[in-house]
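Q: Here's a chain of 484 amino acids. Please give me its 3D structure as C-alpha coordinates.
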Amino acid sequence: MKLGNLLNQLSELTSIHNDEFDSIEIVGISANSEEIQPGYLFIAIPGYQTDGHDYIESALSAGAAVIVGEKDKSDLPVPYIKVSNSRLALAMLACEFYGNPSRNHIVIGITGTNGKTTTSFMLKHMLESAGKTCALFGSVYNIVNGQITSSQRNTTLDAIELQKQIAASQDDFIIIEVSSHGIAQHRIWGIEFDVCLFTNLDQDHLDYHHNMEEYFKVKASLFDQLSTQGRAVINCYDSWGEKLADLISQKEIIPLGKDAYFLERKSSDPIAHLFLNNESYKLKLNMLGIHNFQNAAMAFLTASQLGINGQLMEDCLQSFSGVPGRFEVFQHPCGANFIVDYAHTAAAFSQCLQTALEMKAKSITHIFGFRGDRDPNKRREMADVSCEFSDLSILTFDDLNSIPHKKMEETLLQYHKDGKTLVIPDRTLAIKHAWDTATNGEWVIITGKGHENYQQEFELPTSSDAETLQYLLNNSNEQEASIS
Protein backbone atom coordinates (compact mmCIF):
# COMPACT_ATOMS: atom_id res chain seq x y z
CA MET A 1 0.00 0.00 0.00
CA LYS A 2 1.26 3.49 -0.85
CA LEU A 3 2.20 5.71 2.07
CA GLY A 4 0.07 8.52 0.68
CA ASN A 5 -3.08 6.39 0.99
CA LEU A 6 -2.25 5.52 4.57
CA LEU A 7 -1.59 9.14 5.51
CA ASN A 8 -5.04 10.14 4.29
CA GLN A 9 -6.35 8.38 7.40
CA LEU A 10 -4.22 10.56 9.70
CA SER A 11 -5.71 13.91 8.70
CA GLU A 12 -7.03 14.37 12.26
CA LEU A 13 -3.59 13.81 13.76
CA THR A 14 -1.19 15.47 11.33
CA SER A 15 -1.19 18.00 8.51
CA ILE A 16 2.10 16.70 7.09
CA HIS A 17 2.01 15.44 3.54
CA ASN A 18 4.51 15.32 0.72
CA ASP A 19 3.86 14.29 -2.85
CA GLU A 20 6.93 12.09 -2.66
CA PHE A 21 5.14 9.97 -0.04
CA ASP A 22 2.74 8.72 -2.70
CA SER A 23 5.48 6.62 -4.29
CA ILE A 24 6.66 4.90 -1.09
CA GLU A 25 5.33 1.36 -0.83
CA ILE A 26 4.52 0.12 2.69
CA VAL A 27 4.51 -3.68 3.04
CA GLY A 28 3.75 -3.89 6.76
CA ILE A 29 3.25 -1.88 9.94
CA SER A 30 4.34 -2.53 13.50
CA ALA A 31 4.95 -0.85 16.84
CA ASN A 32 7.50 -3.52 17.76
CA SER A 33 10.99 -2.81 16.42
CA GLU A 34 11.81 -6.53 16.53
CA GLU A 35 9.09 -7.21 13.93
CA ILE A 36 10.29 -4.59 11.45
CA GLN A 37 11.36 -5.77 7.99
CA PRO A 38 12.43 -3.77 4.92
CA GLY A 39 9.53 -1.65 3.69
CA TYR A 40 7.72 -1.55 7.04
CA LEU A 41 6.25 1.49 8.75
CA PHE A 42 7.29 1.72 12.41
CA ILE A 43 5.05 3.51 14.93
CA ALA A 44 6.78 4.74 18.08
CA ILE A 45 4.41 4.61 21.05
CA PRO A 46 5.21 6.05 24.50
CA GLY A 47 4.47 3.09 26.78
CA TYR A 48 4.07 2.66 30.51
CA GLN A 49 7.40 0.93 30.97
CA THR A 50 9.28 1.63 27.73
CA ASP A 51 9.11 4.34 25.07
CA GLY A 52 8.92 3.26 21.44
CA HIS A 53 10.83 6.40 20.42
CA ASP A 54 13.91 4.82 22.00
CA TYR A 55 13.72 2.00 19.42
CA ILE A 56 13.63 4.11 16.28
CA GLU A 57 17.29 3.39 15.49
CA SER A 58 16.63 -0.36 15.83
CA ALA A 59 13.68 -0.06 13.46
CA LEU A 60 15.79 1.83 10.95
CA SER A 61 18.53 -0.79 11.14
CA ALA A 62 15.92 -3.46 10.37
CA GLY A 63 14.80 -1.61 7.23
CA ALA A 64 11.92 0.63 8.30
CA ALA A 65 10.85 2.83 5.38
CA VAL A 66 8.82 5.32 7.43
CA ILE A 67 8.66 6.30 11.10
CA VAL A 68 5.56 7.65 12.85
CA GLY A 69 5.83 9.14 16.35
CA GLU A 70 4.79 11.89 18.74
CA LYS A 71 8.15 13.51 19.50
CA ASP A 72 10.17 15.93 17.40
CA LYS A 73 12.77 14.10 15.34
CA SER A 74 15.19 15.36 12.72
CA ASP A 75 17.94 14.06 10.47
CA LEU A 76 16.36 10.64 10.00
CA PRO A 77 17.23 8.88 6.73
CA VAL A 78 13.55 8.08 6.06
CA PRO A 79 10.34 10.15 6.28
CA TYR A 80 9.25 10.92 9.84
CA ILE A 81 5.56 11.68 10.42
CA LYS A 82 4.80 13.46 13.68
CA VAL A 83 1.30 12.84 15.11
CA SER A 84 -0.48 13.99 18.23
CA ASN A 85 -1.43 10.48 19.39
CA SER A 86 0.64 7.46 18.35
CA ARG A 87 -1.84 4.88 19.69
CA LEU A 88 -4.70 6.37 17.72
CA ALA A 89 -2.47 6.66 14.66
CA LEU A 90 -1.60 2.97 15.03
CA ALA A 91 -5.29 2.03 15.06
CA MET A 92 -6.10 4.23 12.07
CA LEU A 93 -3.21 2.89 10.02
CA ALA A 94 -4.01 -0.72 10.92
CA CYS A 95 -7.66 -0.34 9.92
CA GLU A 96 -6.73 1.16 6.55
CA PHE A 97 -3.80 -1.17 5.86
CA TYR A 98 -6.00 -4.25 6.30
CA GLY A 99 -8.88 -2.80 4.30
CA ASN A 100 -11.44 -2.02 7.05
CA PRO A 101 -12.18 -5.75 7.39
CA SER A 102 -15.00 -5.48 9.94
CA ARG A 103 -17.27 -4.32 7.10
CA ASN A 104 -17.13 -7.85 5.67
CA HIS A 105 -18.52 -9.55 8.80
CA ILE A 106 -21.28 -9.36 11.36
CA VAL A 107 -19.33 -8.11 14.39
CA ILE A 108 -20.44 -8.45 18.02
CA GLY A 109 -18.69 -6.62 20.87
CA ILE A 110 -19.17 -7.61 24.52
CA THR A 111 -18.09 -5.30 27.33
CA GLY A 112 -18.61 -5.17 31.10
CA THR A 113 -16.62 -6.00 34.22
CA ASN A 114 -17.84 -9.56 34.67
CA GLY A 115 -19.44 -12.12 32.38
CA LYS A 116 -17.84 -11.17 29.05
CA THR A 117 -16.12 -14.51 28.53
CA THR A 118 -19.01 -16.77 29.54
CA THR A 119 -21.49 -14.74 27.48
CA SER A 120 -19.19 -14.86 24.45
CA PHE A 121 -18.73 -18.63 24.70
CA MET A 122 -22.49 -19.18 25.10
CA LEU A 123 -23.24 -16.97 22.12
CA LYS A 124 -20.61 -18.73 20.00
CA HIS A 125 -22.14 -22.10 20.95
CA MET A 126 -25.60 -20.90 19.88
CA LEU A 127 -24.40 -19.53 16.55
CA GLU A 128 -22.43 -22.66 15.73
CA SER A 129 -25.38 -24.86 16.73
CA ALA A 130 -27.32 -22.98 14.06
CA GLY A 131 -24.71 -23.91 11.46
CA LYS A 132 -22.84 -20.60 11.45
CA THR A 133 -19.08 -20.13 11.67
CA CYS A 134 -17.78 -17.86 14.37
CA ALA A 135 -14.45 -16.20 15.21
CA LEU A 136 -13.81 -15.32 18.83
CA PHE A 137 -11.31 -12.91 20.37
CA GLY A 138 -11.13 -12.98 24.15
CA SER A 139 -9.28 -13.69 27.35
CA VAL A 140 -9.25 -17.52 27.22
CA TYR A 141 -8.20 -18.00 23.61
CA ASN A 142 -8.70 -16.66 20.10
CA ILE A 143 -10.23 -18.70 17.30
CA VAL A 144 -10.30 -17.79 13.60
CA ASN A 145 -11.41 -20.11 10.80
CA GLY A 146 -11.60 -22.94 13.32
CA GLN A 147 -7.97 -22.53 14.40
CA ILE A 148 -7.36 -21.86 18.10
CA THR A 149 -4.46 -19.71 19.29
CA SER A 150 -3.58 -18.76 22.84
CA SER A 151 -4.71 -15.37 24.10
CA GLN A 152 -2.25 -12.59 24.84
CA ARG A 153 -2.03 -10.99 28.28
CA ASN A 154 -4.62 -8.43 27.18
CA THR A 155 -8.28 -9.37 26.83
CA THR A 156 -8.52 -7.30 23.65
CA LEU A 157 -5.81 -7.74 21.01
CA ASP A 158 -3.70 -4.77 19.94
CA ALA A 159 -5.08 -2.84 16.97
CA ILE A 160 -2.72 -4.28 14.35
CA GLU A 161 -3.21 -7.91 15.33
CA LEU A 162 -6.98 -7.50 15.72
CA GLN A 163 -7.42 -5.95 12.27
CA LYS A 164 -5.07 -8.55 10.77
CA GLN A 165 -7.03 -11.44 12.30
CA ILE A 166 -10.41 -10.01 11.26
CA ALA A 167 -9.07 -9.61 7.71
CA ALA A 168 -7.93 -13.25 7.73
CA SER A 169 -11.27 -14.53 9.05
CA GLN A 170 -13.70 -16.23 6.68
CA ASP A 171 -16.20 -16.72 9.51
CA ASP A 172 -19.80 -15.54 9.39
CA PHE A 173 -19.59 -13.82 12.77
CA ILE A 174 -16.87 -12.11 14.79
CA ILE A 175 -17.24 -11.94 18.60
CA ILE A 176 -14.86 -9.62 20.47
CA GLU A 177 -14.50 -9.31 24.23
CA VAL A 178 -13.90 -5.59 24.59
CA SER A 179 -12.02 -4.46 27.69
CA SER A 180 -11.98 -0.89 28.97
CA HIS A 181 -8.24 -0.76 28.28
CA GLY A 182 -8.91 -1.91 24.72
CA ILE A 183 -11.35 0.97 24.23
CA ALA A 184 -9.21 3.63 25.94
CA GLN A 185 -6.12 2.59 23.98
CA HIS A 186 -7.98 2.70 20.64
CA ARG A 187 -7.43 -1.01 19.92
CA ILE A 188 -10.94 -1.32 18.44
CA TRP A 189 -10.89 1.97 16.52
CA GLY A 190 -12.55 1.71 13.12
CA ILE A 191 -14.51 -1.47 13.85
CA GLU A 192 -18.20 -1.20 13.07
CA PHE A 193 -20.25 -3.32 15.46
CA ASP A 194 -23.59 -4.80 14.48
CA VAL A 195 -24.43 -5.69 18.09
CA CYS A 196 -22.84 -4.44 21.33
CA LEU A 197 -23.52 -6.03 24.72
CA PHE A 198 -23.10 -4.54 28.20
CA THR A 199 -23.05 -7.15 30.99
CA ASN A 200 -22.49 -5.10 34.16
CA LEU A 201 -20.06 -2.73 35.89
CA ASP A 202 -18.24 -3.25 39.17
CA GLN A 203 -15.24 -1.59 40.78
CA ASP A 204 -12.19 -2.67 38.82
CA HIS A 205 -9.26 -1.08 36.99
CA LEU A 206 -9.58 2.16 38.97
CA ASP A 207 -5.79 2.29 39.07
CA TYR A 208 -6.18 3.07 35.36
CA HIS A 209 -9.51 4.89 35.10
CA HIS A 210 -9.35 6.78 38.45
CA ASN A 211 -13.08 6.59 39.27
CA MET A 212 -16.25 4.70 38.39
CA GLU A 213 -17.70 7.50 36.26
CA GLU A 214 -14.63 7.55 34.04
CA TYR A 215 -14.65 3.74 33.88
CA PHE A 216 -18.31 3.82 32.85
CA LYS A 217 -17.79 6.49 30.18
CA VAL A 218 -15.04 4.43 28.58
CA LYS A 219 -17.27 1.34 28.50
CA ALA A 220 -20.21 3.36 27.19
CA SER A 221 -18.10 4.75 24.33
CA LEU A 222 -18.07 1.29 22.74
CA PHE A 223 -21.70 1.91 21.74
CA ASP A 224 -20.63 4.93 19.67
CA GLN A 225 -19.18 2.38 17.25
CA LEU A 226 -22.49 0.68 16.54
CA SER A 227 -23.32 0.66 12.84
CA THR A 228 -26.31 2.63 11.60
CA GLN A 229 -28.57 -0.40 12.00
CA GLY A 230 -26.70 -1.69 15.07
CA ARG A 231 -28.40 -2.85 18.26
CA ALA A 232 -27.44 -2.66 21.93
CA VAL A 233 -28.20 -5.56 24.29
CA ILE A 234 -27.95 -4.17 27.82
CA ASN A 235 -28.26 -5.87 31.20
CA CYS A 236 -30.57 -3.43 33.02
CA TYR A 237 -30.61 -5.61 36.14
CA ASP A 238 -27.35 -3.75 36.71
CA SER A 239 -27.79 -0.08 37.71
CA TRP A 240 -24.98 0.99 35.38
CA GLY A 241 -26.79 -0.83 32.59
CA GLU A 242 -29.90 1.24 33.28
CA LYS A 243 -27.76 4.37 33.11
CA LEU A 244 -26.29 3.26 29.79
CA ALA A 245 -29.74 2.54 28.33
CA ASP A 246 -30.82 6.10 29.20
CA LEU A 247 -27.59 7.54 27.79
CA ILE A 248 -27.98 5.86 24.37
CA SER A 249 -31.78 5.89 24.22
CA GLN A 250 -31.67 7.10 20.61
CA LYS A 251 -30.23 3.72 19.54
CA GLU A 252 -32.11 0.44 19.17
CA ILE A 253 -31.91 -1.20 22.60
CA ILE A 254 -32.80 -4.66 23.85
CA PRO A 255 -32.87 -4.05 27.64
CA LEU A 256 -32.74 -7.23 29.74
CA GLY A 257 -34.73 -6.51 32.89
CA LYS A 258 -36.97 -3.85 31.35
CA ASP A 259 -40.03 -3.71 29.12
CA ALA A 260 -40.68 -7.04 27.38
CA TYR A 261 -37.30 -8.62 28.24
CA PHE A 262 -37.00 -10.13 31.70
CA LEU A 263 -36.00 -13.23 33.67
CA GLU A 264 -37.97 -15.21 36.22
CA ARG A 265 -36.35 -17.82 38.44
CA LYS A 266 -37.05 -19.35 41.83
CA SER A 267 -34.14 -19.65 44.23
CA SER A 268 -31.98 -22.76 43.61
CA ASP A 269 -34.10 -23.69 40.56
CA PRO A 270 -31.82 -24.96 37.75
CA ILE A 271 -34.20 -23.42 35.21
CA ALA A 272 -35.00 -19.76 34.55
CA HIS A 273 -37.64 -18.41 32.20
CA LEU A 274 -36.72 -15.68 29.78
CA PHE A 275 -39.57 -13.56 28.49
CA LEU A 276 -39.00 -12.07 25.07
CA ASN A 277 -41.84 -10.07 23.53
CA ASN A 278 -44.51 -12.15 25.34
CA GLU A 279 -42.79 -15.42 24.40
CA SER A 280 -41.39 -17.55 27.24
CA TYR A 281 -38.21 -19.60 26.87
CA LYS A 282 -36.59 -22.03 29.31
CA LEU A 283 -32.96 -21.43 30.21
CA LYS A 284 -31.64 -24.70 31.60
CA LEU A 285 -27.91 -24.68 32.34
CA ASN A 286 -25.33 -27.28 33.21
CA MET A 287 -23.21 -24.45 34.66
CA LEU A 288 -23.62 -23.45 38.27
CA GLY A 289 -23.74 -19.81 39.26
CA ILE A 290 -26.61 -17.38 39.75
CA HIS A 291 -24.94 -14.88 37.44
CA ASN A 292 -24.79 -17.37 34.58
CA PHE A 293 -28.55 -17.09 33.99
CA GLN A 294 -28.05 -13.42 33.16
CA ASN A 295 -25.09 -14.32 30.94
CA ALA A 296 -27.26 -16.91 29.19
CA ALA A 297 -30.10 -14.42 28.77
CA MET A 298 -27.73 -11.86 27.23
CA ALA A 299 -26.45 -14.46 24.76
CA PHE A 300 -30.02 -15.62 24.00
CA LEU A 301 -31.28 -12.09 23.31
CA THR A 302 -28.30 -11.40 21.06
CA ALA A 303 -28.71 -14.61 19.08
CA SER A 304 -32.43 -13.90 18.69
CA GLN A 305 -31.55 -10.52 17.15
CA LEU A 306 -29.33 -12.38 14.69
CA GLY A 307 -32.18 -14.62 13.58
CA ILE A 308 -31.41 -17.79 15.55
CA ASN A 309 -34.42 -19.99 16.37
CA GLY A 310 -35.60 -19.85 19.99
CA GLN A 311 -36.14 -23.60 20.40
CA LEU A 312 -32.67 -24.26 19.04
CA MET A 313 -31.20 -21.85 21.60
CA GLU A 314 -33.10 -23.55 24.42
CA ASP A 315 -31.72 -26.93 23.38
CA CYS A 316 -28.13 -25.89 22.82
CA LEU A 317 -27.90 -24.11 26.21
CA GLN A 318 -28.48 -27.49 27.83
CA SER A 319 -25.51 -28.90 25.93
CA PHE A 320 -23.22 -25.99 26.78
CA SER A 321 -20.37 -27.45 28.82
CA GLY A 322 -18.95 -24.25 30.27
CA VAL A 323 -15.78 -22.18 30.02
CA PRO A 324 -12.32 -23.02 31.39
CA GLY A 325 -11.84 -21.23 34.68
CA ARG A 326 -15.42 -19.96 34.96
CA PHE A 327 -17.15 -21.74 37.86
CA GLU A 328 -15.29 -24.90 36.93
CA VAL A 329 -16.17 -27.74 39.33
CA PHE A 330 -13.79 -30.38 40.74
CA GLN A 331 -15.10 -33.17 42.98
CA HIS A 332 -13.13 -34.09 46.09
CA PRO A 333 -13.24 -37.82 47.03
CA CYS A 334 -14.86 -36.90 50.36
CA GLY A 335 -17.81 -35.21 48.64
CA ALA A 336 -16.65 -31.60 48.80
CA ASN A 337 -16.95 -29.33 45.76
CA PHE A 338 -13.93 -27.29 44.66
CA ILE A 339 -14.67 -24.39 42.30
CA VAL A 340 -12.20 -22.46 40.15
CA ASP A 341 -13.47 -19.06 39.01
CA TYR A 342 -12.00 -15.90 37.54
CA ALA A 343 -13.99 -13.66 39.94
CA HIS A 344 -11.82 -10.70 40.99
CA THR A 345 -14.29 -8.09 42.24
CA ALA A 346 -16.52 -7.92 45.31
CA ALA A 347 -19.70 -8.36 43.24
CA ALA A 348 -18.27 -11.39 41.47
CA PHE A 349 -17.23 -12.87 44.84
CA SER A 350 -20.78 -12.37 46.09
CA GLN A 351 -22.25 -14.19 43.08
CA CYS A 352 -19.94 -17.19 43.49
CA LEU A 353 -20.35 -17.49 47.26
CA GLN A 354 -24.12 -17.00 47.18
CA THR A 355 -24.36 -19.75 44.56
CA ALA A 356 -22.74 -22.11 47.07
CA LEU A 357 -25.24 -21.00 49.73
CA GLU A 358 -28.11 -21.53 47.31
CA MET A 359 -26.82 -25.04 46.61
CA LYS A 360 -27.04 -25.81 50.35
CA ALA A 361 -23.31 -25.91 51.06
CA LYS A 362 -22.66 -27.19 54.59
CA SER A 363 -19.71 -24.83 54.84
CA ILE A 364 -17.82 -22.48 52.51
CA THR A 365 -14.09 -21.83 52.26
CA HIS A 366 -12.95 -19.02 50.00
CA ILE A 367 -9.39 -18.77 48.65
CA PHE A 368 -8.34 -15.49 47.02
CA GLY A 369 -5.66 -12.83 46.82
CA PHE A 370 -4.89 -9.36 45.48
CA ARG A 371 -2.96 -8.53 42.33
CA GLY A 372 0.13 -6.40 42.74
CA ASP A 373 0.16 -2.96 41.07
CA ARG A 374 -3.63 -3.01 40.75
CA ASP A 375 -6.41 -0.94 42.29
CA PRO A 376 -5.95 -1.30 46.08
CA ASN A 377 -9.20 0.50 46.89
CA LYS A 378 -11.36 -2.54 46.09
CA ARG A 379 -9.48 -4.85 48.48
CA ARG A 380 -11.40 -4.02 51.66
CA GLU A 381 -14.77 -4.68 50.01
CA MET A 382 -13.46 -7.94 48.54
CA ALA A 383 -12.30 -9.10 51.98
CA ASP A 384 -15.55 -8.01 53.65
CA VAL A 385 -17.72 -9.87 51.11
CA SER A 386 -15.60 -12.99 51.51
CA CYS A 387 -15.96 -12.94 55.28
CA GLU A 388 -19.70 -12.23 55.04
CA PHE A 389 -20.55 -15.23 52.87
CA SER A 390 -17.88 -17.80 53.76
CA ASP A 391 -17.02 -19.68 56.93
CA LEU A 392 -13.29 -19.34 56.27
CA SER A 393 -11.29 -17.06 53.98
CA ILE A 394 -7.79 -18.11 53.00
CA LEU A 395 -5.75 -15.14 51.81
CA THR A 396 -3.05 -16.10 49.35
CA PHE A 397 -0.98 -14.77 46.46
CA ASP A 398 -2.44 -13.80 43.12
CA ASP A 399 -0.11 -12.24 40.52
CA LEU A 400 2.56 -10.27 42.37
CA ASN A 401 3.61 -8.31 39.27
CA SER A 402 6.34 -5.94 40.55
CA ILE A 403 5.35 -6.17 44.23
CA PRO A 404 7.95 -7.99 46.41
CA HIS A 405 6.92 -11.24 48.06
CA LYS A 406 7.33 -9.81 51.57
CA LYS A 407 5.30 -6.67 50.87
CA MET A 408 2.35 -8.65 49.50
CA GLU A 409 2.46 -10.97 52.49
CA GLU A 410 2.25 -7.92 54.75
CA THR A 411 -0.71 -6.68 52.70
CA LEU A 412 -2.56 -9.97 53.18
CA LEU A 413 -1.99 -9.80 56.92
CA GLN A 414 -3.76 -6.42 57.01
CA TYR A 415 -7.01 -8.23 56.14
CA HIS A 416 -6.58 -11.07 58.62
CA LYS A 417 -9.47 -11.61 61.05
CA ASP A 418 -9.04 -14.03 63.94
CA GLY A 419 -11.21 -17.10 63.54
CA LYS A 420 -12.34 -15.99 60.10
CA THR A 421 -9.21 -15.97 57.94
CA LEU A 422 -5.93 -17.75 57.32
CA VAL A 423 -2.95 -16.32 55.47
CA ILE A 424 -1.09 -18.89 53.36
CA PRO A 425 1.00 -16.96 50.79
CA ASP A 426 1.91 -19.95 48.60
CA ARG A 427 -1.20 -20.39 46.44
CA THR A 428 -0.68 -24.11 45.83
CA LEU A 429 -0.26 -24.74 49.56
CA ALA A 430 -3.38 -22.70 50.30
CA ILE A 431 -5.34 -24.94 47.95
CA LYS A 432 -3.67 -28.04 49.40
CA HIS A 433 -4.64 -26.98 52.93
CA ALA A 434 -8.27 -26.70 51.87
CA TRP A 435 -8.02 -30.04 50.05
CA ASP A 436 -6.50 -31.84 53.04
CA THR A 437 -9.13 -30.51 55.47
CA ALA A 438 -12.17 -30.74 53.17
CA THR A 439 -15.35 -32.35 54.48
CA ASN A 440 -18.44 -33.80 52.84
CA GLY A 441 -20.80 -31.05 51.69
CA GLU A 442 -18.19 -28.30 51.91
CA TRP A 443 -17.69 -25.88 49.01
CA VAL A 444 -14.23 -24.43 48.38
CA ILE A 445 -14.29 -21.43 46.04
CA ILE A 446 -10.92 -20.48 44.51
CA THR A 447 -11.11 -17.11 42.76
CA GLY A 448 -8.93 -14.65 40.90
CA LYS A 449 -6.95 -16.69 38.40
CA GLY A 450 -9.56 -18.76 36.58
CA HIS A 451 -7.99 -20.18 33.41
CA GLU A 452 -4.76 -18.17 33.79
CA ASN A 453 -1.37 -19.70 34.54
CA TYR A 454 0.60 -18.69 37.60
CA GLN A 455 3.14 -15.92 37.08
CA GLN A 456 5.44 -17.11 39.86
CA GLU A 457 6.58 -20.52 41.00
CA PHE A 458 4.98 -22.18 44.01
CA GLU A 459 5.85 -25.28 46.00
CA LEU A 460 3.63 -27.76 44.14
CA PRO A 461 4.75 -28.52 40.55
CA THR A 462 1.66 -26.99 38.94
CA SER A 463 0.96 -23.95 36.78
CA SER A 464 -2.71 -23.10 37.41
CA ASP A 465 -5.49 -23.57 39.97
CA ALA A 466 -7.14 -26.27 37.87
CA GLU A 467 -3.82 -28.09 37.48
CA THR A 468 -3.22 -27.88 41.22
CA LEU A 469 -6.59 -29.48 41.93
CA GLN A 470 -5.98 -32.19 39.34
CA TYR A 471 -2.57 -32.88 40.91
CA LEU A 472 -4.15 -33.23 44.36
CA LEU A 473 -6.93 -35.42 42.97
CA ASN A 474 -4.41 -37.70 41.25
CA ASN A 475 -2.43 -38.02 44.49
CA SER A 476 -5.61 -38.87 46.40
CA ASN A 477 -6.49 -41.56 43.86
CA GLU A 478 -2.98 -43.03 44.03
CA GLN A 479 -3.08 -43.13 47.83
CA GLU A 480 -6.48 -44.80 47.76
CA ALA A 481 -5.24 -47.36 45.22
CA SER A 482 -2.16 -48.18 47.32
CA ILE A 483 -4.31 -48.72 50.42
CA SER A 484 -6.74 -51.03 48.61
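Q: Can you summarize the key feature?
A: The longest helix spans residues 465-483.
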